[in-house]
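Each field is set out underneath.
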Amino acid sequence: MGQNKYNFRQFFQYTFLSVLGTLGVSCYILADTFFISKGLGNDGLTALNLAIPAYSFVHGTALMLGVGGATGFSVSKSRGDSQRANMIFTVTVIAGAVLGVLFALCGAFLSRPLSRMLGANDEVLDMTDTYLRWLLIFSPAFMLNEIMLCFMRNDNAPQLSMAAMLIGSLANTVLDYVFVFPLKMGILGAVLATVFSPVISLAIMCVNILRKKNTFRAVKVKNAAKLLLHDFRLGFPSLLAQFSSGITIIVFNYIILRLKGNVGVAAYGIIANISVVIVAIYTGMAQGIQPLISNAHGSGNTASARSTVRLALIATTISSLAIYFAMFLLDSQIVSIFNNSGNQELRLIAEPGIKLYFTSTVFVGINLTIATYFTSIENALPAHILTILRGFAIIIPLAYLMSAIWGMTGVWLAYPITELVVAVAGAIIYLVKIKKGVRQWNH
C-alpha cells in the first residue's frame, strides 16, 4: 500500500507540473490569437492560422529530438550508464541547434513563397509573411528550449521545467499586450512576443546548469549517428503528431477557404488554437508519465509502468469530460472573446464547430497516452502506426469526403471520428501487447 501511495504521489507531481508547463507553452499561440483578434480583427486571425502549421513543424522536430533523447537518457541513467546518457544529451543538443539554423534560414529567405503555399491570399499575405518569417528565424530558440525542457524533466527537475515554461508564457502574454496595443506594432509585435518567450525560458534553465544542479553534461560522442538514429526512432511519433497537426490545419484551411472564405478560416482559427491548449493538457500528461515509464522499464519494473498508464488513462478521461462539458456550455462566450468585430457569420460557423469538433477530447487523451507508453518502453512501432493513422491515413481523406457531403458539419466531425477510430485501434494494440507480454513472462 505504501508503494502505491508513493507511485500516485510521484505520478501526480510529474503530470501536474508537466501539464502546467505545456499549458504555458500552448498559451504562446493562444495569447497571440486573443490579442491579434482584438488588434487586427478577422484578417489577423486568418493570417495567424495560416502561419501556425510552421510552428507545428518546428515544435514537432524539437519534440522528436527532446522526447527521443530524453527517453534514451532516462533509460540509460536507470541502468547506471551515465556515459551513454551524457552522449545522448550532447548529440541531441547539437542536432537541435543544426536543425534550428536550417529552419531559421528558411524563414529569412523563403517566408513569402511559404506563405503563398500555406494559402495566404493578397488580403492577408503581408501579415502571414511577417508572422512566419520571425517565427522561423527564432527556430533555434524554440528547438533548444523544448529539448532542454525534456531533459530537465527526465533529470528529476520537473519543477524547474514547469517554472521555465510558465514564466516564458507569462512573459509572452505581457509582451503581447505591450507590443500590440501601447506600441501598436501589429502582427510583428505579436510574433516578437511569442519568439522572446523560449529565450526567457532557456535563460532560466541555463542558470540551473551554470550552478551545476543537473546530472547531464556535454561529453565527447562516439557513434553519434547511431545515437541520433535512436533519438529519431523514439521521438518520431512526437514529430508525426505535430507534423500531422500542421498538415491537418493546412488541409482544413484549404477546404474551409473553398466553403466559407477568410471568415471561415478565422472561425477555424479560433477552434484550432483552443484545440492547441486542450491537446497541451494531454501532451503534458504524456510528457509527465514518460520519465516514470522509462525509469520503470529501464529497471525492469513492468507492473509500475502499466500502473502509470492506467492512472494516466483515468486522469485523461475525467479531464476530457470536464473540458467538453465546459466547451458545450460556453461556446458562445468563447467565440465572443475572439470575435472583436461581432461578425455574425463567424459566430454562426464557430459556435456549432466547437460543439462538434471537441467531441474528440476523450479519444485524443487515450491516443497520446498509449503512444507515449510504447515510446517510453523503447517499442516505438505501435506509436508510429497510431500517429500515422490519426495524422494522415484517416483524417485527410475523411475531411475531403465528409466536407463534400455535409459541408462545414463534415469538416468539424472528421477530427473526432478519426480520433475515435484510432483510439479503438490503440486499445486493441495495447491489450494484445500486454497479453503477449504476460504470456511470455509466464513461460
